[in-house]
Amino acid sequence: MKMNRNEMETLYAFGCPNLKATVERLRMVAALAPDPVAKKLFYMLSVKLSAEGVERWYRCFYCKLRVLKNHREGCYDETDED
Q: In which domain, by residue range, is 66 found?
């Protein structure tokens, strides 16, 4: 499944390794978002993550996204040593 940059940024901000919790959270955020464009982004991402077969790859994808984003921003876990 392909995701654009906005979807990956949204997943980084609102996601967690638990797919069911992430989808529920995105739906709640979509309901609360005042901006129609943001509301659509959140809702459509929750629909995309609700598709059949996503549970097979989601957890690995999410963890790789977090690692990639943290290293790009220069944020490292306390366990990382330079």
A: 3-72
Q: Confirm whether 17 is domain-assigned.
A: yes
Measure the CA–CA gap between 7 and 49, rounded to whole angstroms: 11
CA separation for the pair 17, 59 (Å, rounded): 5
In this predicted model, what pLDDT tens digit does every residue of 30-77 receive, in sequence order? 999 999 999 999 999 999 999 999 999 999 999 999 998 887 766 555
DSSP state of 27: H
CA 3 to CA 74: how far, in whole Å? 23
- Total domains in the chain come to 1
Residue 35 domain-assigned? yes
pLDDT of amino acid 41: 97
pTM for the model stands at: 0.81
